[in-house]
Every structure is written in C-alpha cells, then in structure tokens.
Design goal:
The chain is built from 3 helices and 5 strands. By secondary structure, it is α/β, with parallel strands linked by helices. It has a 3-stranded parallel beta sheet with strand order 1-3-5, covered by helices on one side. Strands 2-4 form a two-stranded parallel sheet.
Length: about 90
Amino acid sequence: MSSLELASVCTLREAADFKSQLMAQVAQPGDVDIDASHVGKIDTSGLQLLLAFVRQLDAEGRGLSWTQQPNPELYRAATQLGLVDALKLPAMEA
C-alpha cells in the first residue's frame, strides 16, 4: 500500500506537478491511502485529475482509502460538481 499526501493547493497552476504526483502513484503497485487534510484550495482541473486517478485505480482493481478527514474545501468543491461519490469521499464528519 502506498500513501499520497495532497498539496494544500491543487489548481490549474499546479496541474502539471499534481498530475506527475498522481502518475507516480499509479506506477506503484497496490492500494493507495490518500491524505487530503491539507487541501485548502482545489479547482475543477484539480478535481478532474483526482477523478481520473480514482477511475484509474478502479480500472486496475486497486483500492483507495482516505486516511484523514479531507479538508472541507475539497468537500465543497466536489459537492459543487457532484463528484463526492465518484471520488469515494468518506462522509463528512460533523
């Protein structure tokens, strides 16, 4: 199992680096634990890359888990675009 800690900013400006980070994880075998607790800003391009990553893991039959409660900003952005279920985000804690 490998771990992935998302950066505090996942926007179009950081898309190339973010994509490289995700592709490095795809190249590793096994399931992936994601820590998105530090994501303070994510835009549509960041969510698209994250969604493609989740779908790639699914296509390979690999598991995904969120190790920390994702930052509320990630929930807000994912909710706006209707991606909470597609990203397999855990239920938001009160």
